[in-house]
Write a structure and sequence with these properties.
129 residues
């Protein structure tokens, strides 16, 4: 879901206030050179990755996966934005959201579910590359 400014925005309802592990999947199949597509990744209004450059990280047509833990408070939805930078519109291949149990020595993750359906989103947005 791209807005009029070229940003990609996700608003994901989550069942409870908690820590969620967000895993974002990228590949750039259009631009071969580093610096051709640069954008910020923002979660809950906080910049998690600034000047994110897919081709600059792994090269042309190579998968890049980034992961972060995000705290969602007061029953608000989880928000994720790929915010257009100075160079080209952002792109994303897919995303996963897991509830995280950080209470014990072994961290465990489970998919976020709502009435039996996984809330994780897999998408390939349309629009310019």
């Amino acid at each position: 879901p791209r807005d009029g400014d070229g940003n990609i925005n996700y608003i994901i309802p989550v069942p409870t206030s908690a820590v969620y592990r967000v895993r974002l999947h990228f590949t750039d199949t259009y631009y071969e050179e580093a610096g051709s597509r640069v954008f910020d990744i923002v979660t809950q209004g906080v910049t998690a990755f600034q000047h994110f450059d897919i081709a600059g990280r792994n090269g042309y047509k190579q998968a890049v996966v980034v992961e972060m833990d995000v705290t969602v408070d007061h029953g608000e939805p989880l928000t994720i934005t790929m915010q257009r930078g100075a160079v080209e519109n952002p792109t994303i291949c897919g995303l996963e959201v897991f509830g995280v149990n950080l209470a014990g020595p072994n961290t465990s993750s489970t998919p976020v579910t709502s009435t039996g359906a996984t809330t994780a989103v897999s998408t390939s947005p349309t629009g310019s590359p």
